[in-house]
Amino acid sequence: MTQSPDGASAQADATMTGPDDSLAGDDLASARRVLDTEAEALAALGKSLGPSFLTALDIMAATEGRVIISGMGKSGHIGRKIAATLASTGTPAFFVHPGEASHGDLGMITASDSLFMLSNSGETTELADLVAYAARFSIPLVGVTSVAGSALANAADAALILPNAPEACPMGLAPTTSTTLMLALGDALSVALLERRQFSPADFHALHPGGKLGRRLLKVSDIMHDGKELPMVAPETDMSEVLITMTNKRFGCAGIADANGQFLGIITDGDLRRHMSPELLATTAVEIMTENPTTIGPNALASEALAIMNEKTITNLFVVEGGRALGILHVHDCLRAGVA
To answer: How large is the average pLDDT for residues 82-103?
Structure first.
């Protein structure tokens, strides 16, 4: 059975300008409405921060034990993420499920801890035992809720009230805007604590040794060669011996240090080519070396060392501190460690 040309044309038109295009437009409009709603709420949250936020920050900073996060349902999911963010940025924290807390997990919480509880309504029944436990043992309580007069807000030492903003769900039922605000508030507290504690990249690396982030935070001292691997010679060393050192140590260079260990310069393959003559082997290291070469400190990031080597078009960097050569780093060391 063949289709008439008119039918084929109508089918093609439906494919090009049919209901799918209209649906796509509606879908994008819906998605953008959600993002606009939540963005407006986040802006309102930022403007609302004040003394209660600072009190919450003081409580968490003064916590000698751990910050215990708790929440039910979607608030609980957000709480788990906040606990992970706090812990990874220098504030020891973990999540306790409120239902499990009432069946023995209250024993995880000590008088040296603080509590951080999330409930959009502020009336979540499952949190009642945690609130009572905090009051009984004088455990500081930070509450996050949308209702200023709620049970959680009234019980909290610091009540962080979310701004009055509609859920992005068109029915106003699914936690969307409210959970976004909770998550952002957790990030704000975590970063403020991080900055107050002057949490450094080195501290961050200690808590993130694995993955791409860990590789980005590797220090030069973590991957440099030191000790007997260093290609070092004295200033008066004959060039014949310098060549042997450069060959044996396999870095294609040699560092020169005086009797006191002070780093004076470097001899590279390029220096050899520039001084190539029949008299080369009759000279000494100090006559051939390049003074004041590019060096790097042991506490610099390996990524910084790689950037320097790429910029200078060199393959080695001596690691120097206090005028003494502590190690040497080859570009391949950075690449093998996954630094890029």
So the answer is: 93
316 CB burial (10 A radius; 0-12, 13-18, 19+) = buried
pTM above 0.85, yes or no: no
Give just the sign of the alpha carbon dihedral 47, 51, 57, 59.
Answer: negative
Two structure tokens written together for 98: 């409120």
Residue 261 belongs to domain with CATH number: 3.10.580.10
pLDDT of res. 16: 47
Per-residue pLDDT tens for 13-42?
A: 444 444 567 777 789 999 999 999 999 999
User: Is 129 in the same domain as 262?
Assistant: no
Angle at 151 between CA 150 and CA 156, to 5 degrees: 100
How many structural domains does the chain have?
2
Range of the domain at 327: 220-336
3-state SS, one letter per residue, for 231-286: CEECCCCEHHHHHHHHHHHCCCEEEEECCCCEEEEEEEHHHHHHCCCCCHHHCEHH
Whole-number pLDDT of residue 336: 85
Q: In whole angstroms, what is the distance from residue 305 CA to residue 328 CA?
A: 11
